[in-house]
Batch of 2 targets.
Target 1
Amino acid sequence: MKVGILGGGQLGRMLLQAAANYTVETYVLESDLDCPAAHLCHHFTKGDIRDFETVYQFGKNLDALTIEIESVNIDALDKLAAEGVKIYPSPAAIRIIKNKIIQKEFYKNNEIPTSNFLITNTIEELQKHEYFLPAVHKIGEGGYDGKGVQIIKEPSEFSKGFNAPAVLEKMVNVEKEIAVIVCVNQKGETAIFPPAEMLFDPILNLLDYQVSPARVNEKVLWKAEAIALKVAKSLQSPGLFAVELFVDQEQNVWVNETAPRVHNSGHHTIEGNFSSQYDMLWRIILNYPLGNTKPILPAAIVNLLGAPSYSGNAIYEGLEEILKIENVFVHLYGKKETKPGRKMGHVTILSNDYQELIFQANKIKQKLRIIS
Ligand SMILES: Nc1ncnc2c1ncn2[C@@H]1O[C@H](COP(=O)(O)OP(=O)(O)OP(=O)(O)O)[C@@H](O)[C@H]1O
Ligand SMILES: [Mg+2]
């Protein structure tokens, strides 16, 4: 089978690592010639994944296409699907998720618990909603890695909002953020990974370490799994879906957002689970039976972000020391240039003991630095 991936970042790279186990011919479309996925695929095409003609030409001779980022030309995917190219997930599912306004309306229409929201188009309009604060303002399209999200606690912060179509959602009193990855095969059968628990860097607002399975009680686990399954089923498409959830102080579970693709919150499944999220997506695309999502051991991951105030050719300081630790696995994404906060790689740690996981995660965060 000839399968294309739209986007050539680290998610595409790890997807290609898993593809090497199967007889699949891989194609990548991405505008950056030197991207993380460029050297691991059979065929690389340089081009803009947002351009109709580029995506159509790239896909028209392939059997199937998948994405590693949502900002793709969906009209081209519609045309390809009509001509018989299989798209994972369906263009309709990507269209719902790509725009945060449509995504929130989808949750509401399907009675999926999500924080209350309203839609704004300008800052002027936003300023009328003082009664709705504290809230979170999210740009409809074009945001990524926290860049399209502003927390607005009081009216003086309205100016931080977006002067573009956006959602204003009620601030959830978050106790814990977790993510559940759901796999849906071509027959509609599902498999679900245990939730991962995320911990964030308060300054960069980027995920910076996580443990899995998440430390939540059984009731929260059931709710999270039921909600994630409901999201995936309501999208009515085969594929892999990562559902980000909030657990609030009262132990209610709310959907934050969904990614219709392999996801950061599933990096640890490469070593930590019997079948990884990447392996699962290939099983779905190649129409093989779904794999075993159970954990082999609990895992933590640390994101390796470019150190503040270093830009240029990346140097990995402390790598040897980290590799000496038992059950530590380093993933460097092959990005030549580092920048403050840029995602350059991640490290997975496996251990039966959560305290050990967190101890080692902190050690790795301190010792392994990406400078230039
Ligand atoms: N309604 C909310 N209440 C409390 N905190 C929120 C809310 N919405 C978002 N946040 C916080 O902001 C973070 C980023 O929000 P979100 O996940 O919507 O955007 P993102 O992941 O940066 O966007 P993208 O998917 O475009 O990369 C969340 O992980 C959470 O910590
Ligand atoms: Mg998010």
Note: The radius of gyration is 20 Å.
Target 2
Amino acid sequence: MAKSVGPIGRREFVKSSVAATGTILITKPGTAFSARANSTINIGLLGCGGRGNSVAGDFVNHTDAQVTVLADLFANRLESTQKRFNELQQKKGRSKVSKTFQGPSAYLDIVESDVDFVLVASPPYFHPLHLKAVLDAGKHVYLEKPVSTDVRGCMQVASLALKAEGKVSAEVGFQIRYGSHFSELTRRLWDGAIGDIACVHGFYFAGDLPRQSVSGMSPAEAKMRNWVFSRILGGDIMVEQNIHVIDAYNWVLRAHPLRAEATAARKVRTDIGDVSDHWIVTYYYPNDVRASFMATQFLPSWGTVGWRFFGPDGFSEAFYSGDLNIQGKNPWVAGADSMAAGKKPEIDPLGDATPLKAQAFVKSIKDGNYHNQLKQGAESTLSAILGRQAAYEGREMTWGELLASDQHWETDIDVTKLG
Ligand SMILES: NC(=O)c1ccc[n+]([C@@H]2O[C@H](COP(=O)([O-])OP(=O)(O)OC[C@H]3O[C@@H](n4cnc5c(N)ncnc54)[C@H](O)[C@@H]3O)[C@@H](O)[C@H]2O)c1
């Protein structure tokens, strides 16, 4: 196995956090929740779009939690989400959504409301700001990935990780690590199923994404609603979408990349935004492990996502579509139970990932055994940013150079005039 180089050093975190925020977060004493084994967990959903609805739905369907407060920049998102959760929760005999907050300062209202945790599913640009507000209010947090779109934001989140430690539970939306088949595969690789990992290969070929439109929207509102096509708001697809595969590399190798070479282009999808539509990246991990990665995001309806690890004793494969296996000296196939029963293994490896993560998070709050994935989330986001910056700058980029860059992006949109 590749030896772990350990996550971002504490010294790097502290140094950069001071540069990034100029302050040290103090979680309000007494506002963090104590263990609450028997009570229903109330969720505040900040960012009522596709992912927020999906993850909050998994909490309601797979735990005894309920969504009680919503916040969003735009009224139409609040209306549809409130209706959805009122109907879903009524069927389950749970409460209705009691409050909604709209506009650019809605995040400040939701963190002060009577909820146990805030699910942050706003666009990535806002994640450091929204995370800090949740932690300042002493609430548990489930933060969607990526944790930021720039280096400074990642370092701020890493610094917030230190301050959150032991006081609240903090998850980051890398649900694949909770998927039962993915985690079984990773455990086998850690146990040496293919020997010391020599090299890695992965890809994220995705379909194009829908354009968002509402009548009468201003150019600024159009840009915000279509944040995924903006580098500054979304981080570019390497960071916004492909990050799941890079997180899997880091997870299995128990390390972050040391340097990267990359290229990216905007060749097919040129009608909107400034993000690239395809990427080719080579990462160099400790122990001379090289990892290739390729992505596209422009075809109308085709997509496939997967990764392979190669070692002297065999190789592993993992695909979103369901085929997870190890071939070589220690063969294994996910879903082999159904194979033994004479059937082809049919598994949905992503199917149980978010539900299991939701259950583990609620349990951590109820038991008082708090999780803290902020540092790991910052590290995976920085790993994706490393590939992105190597491509943008057209040169090899090292981890140290990236952290030292203190890269900081600000949108030209006046967010206070939206919503
Ligand atoms: N873990 C996963 O597999 C996964 C999958 C999809 C998306 N995501 C992540 O989830 C997040 C949201 O993605 P999405 O696809 O739901 O996007 P979306 O555009 O559908 O939803 C974002 C929501 O946030 C709202 N919003 C925008 N700015 C806001 C602000 N300043 N304050 C409050 N609300 C604001 C928007 O109006 C919208 O309702 C992103 O970080 C994305 O990368 C994760």
Note: The chain has a mean pLDDT of 91.
